[in-house]
Specification:
Blueprint (H helix, E strand, L loop, with lengths): L1 H19 L15 H13 L4 E6 L3 H4 L2 H11 L3 H11 L3 E2 L5 E2 L12 H16 L12 H9 L4 E7 L2 E7 L2 H15 L12 E4 L4 E3 L2 E7 L6 E7 L1 H14 L8 H19 L5 H22 L4 H8 L10 E2 L2 E2 L27
Antiparallel strand pairs: 1-5, 1-6, 2-3, 4-5, 7-8, 8-9, 10-11
Helix pairs in contact: 4-5, 4-6, 6-8, 9-10, 9-11
């Protein structure tokens, strides 16, 4: 198993620079120097520029269903070494271990958790990026601003795709019908790859109604107290529920775990979560999460030590009547409300650096 992962890592070092030279900047998932926040910033930028309709798309079981033949055809475009191609094919055909320890062959998909899987998937899905941006990429007919303005004057739509692995959004400067046409077009590109759009998770929305993408809630709203409208991104409901479930699991009242170890783990969970979302409109959410976290830990301590509320006040209420930070053996519980620098993420666009020289 260790040898397999070593080979995968070496193969990735060979293939990644080759295919990164061809990947379009509209793809952000599992690529060097790129983040989910870059994808969100791109959506915010173009929605501000009049792209009001959104095809919020999700590919059904994408990593499980991608066609091996389509993947190999895409790899052969740039990869000519037969030994490399043989390794990629062996990786795809490696199979999976069932619960009873039996090996089961796989005829589609890339192995979940494989080091090479995200790169292989991006190579396959680059067909969608290329198709939808065939006229918009550098040197294409619609690359300059003038052709786009000309299309708008003639009532023709413009569009942009923002993709993060199998999640993507197509932003449309046009109408809902234009977005539906692009949905059919995207479905036709995905079909040869063995993929299809999820009927339950794919929808066409107006940016004023908002949509969820990569854990963020993106919505065009009027600024309170003004007549000005802006595109905001908030924290969606699902990641809030998810982090609360993790906190609950760590602070079950029946738990006999070491309190200091629990606080360390809670700090890791909360710090990672707040760091991911700190560029959103998150101040209120962070404050409410801090209250939830404090109550969970206090109620666990109350059960663990058989304390009364009088004991709680004795240990955690300061002389001025304010609550002190929860700390055990030098480990202090983080307060999400004190997350520093909740600022708007700066759009980087084509200035995102690449580790390699692009030919």
């Amino acid at each position: 198993m260790v040898a397999d992962r070593t080979v995968q890592a070496a193969l990735k070092l060979v293939l990644e620079p080759i295919f990164e030279a061809d990947f379009l900047p509209v793809s952000y998932g599992f690529r060097p120097k790129r983040r989910a926040q870059d994808a969100i910033a791109e959506i915010q930028r173009f929605c501000t520029k009049g792209y009001r309709w959104v095809l919020d798309a999700d590919i059904e079981a994408a990593f499980d269903n991608v066609s091996h033949r389509a993947v190999m055809d895409a790899v052969r475009v740039r990869g000519k070494d037969k030994r490399v191609l043989a390794l990629v094919k062996a990786f795809l055909k490696a199979g999976i271990l069932t619960e009873d320890g039996q090996r089961r062959d796989t005829h589609t998909g890339t192995p979940q958790g494989g080091i090479l899987s995200p790169l292989i998937f991006n190579i396959a899905l680059s067909a969608l990026d290329e198709h939808l941006h065939r006229d918009w990429k550098p040197g294409g007919r619609m690359d300059a601003q003038y052709p786009r303005r000309k299309r708008r004057r003639h009532g023709l739509p413009n569009w942009r795709i923002v993709r993060y692995a199998d999640d993507f959004a197509i932003l449309v400067h046009g109408s809902a019908d234009d977005a539906r046409a692009l949905q059919d077009e995207a479905a036709s590109v995905l079909q040869p790859l063995g993929l299809r759009l999820s009927p339950a998770k794919t929808r066409i929305v107006h940016i004023e109604d908002g949509f969820d993408f990569l854990g963020f809630r993106i919505q065009w709203k009027r600024k309170r107290g003004t007549d000005k409208w802006y595109v905001y991104f908030f924290i969606a409901d699902r990641p809030v529920r998810s982090v609360k479930d993790k906190i609950r699991a760590l602070t079950r009242r029946t738990s006999q775990a070491n309190p200091a170890d629990v606080l360390i783990r809670l700090n890791q969970v909360v710090h990672g979560w707040t760091n991911y979302f700190r560029h959103a409109v998150a101040k209120h959410t962070f404050r409410m999460l801090g209250i939830f976290l404090w109550r969970r830990v206090i109620m666990w301590f109350k059960t663990l030590h058989r304390w009364s509320w009088k004991d709680i006040r004795k240990w955690f209420l300061g002389p001025d009547g304010s609550w002190l930070p929860i700390a055990v053996d030098g480990v202090e519980l983080v307060n999400p409300a004190r997350t520093p620098a909740i600022t708007r993420y700066r759009y980087r666009g084509d200035t995102i650096p690449t580790p390699w020289t692009i030919a």
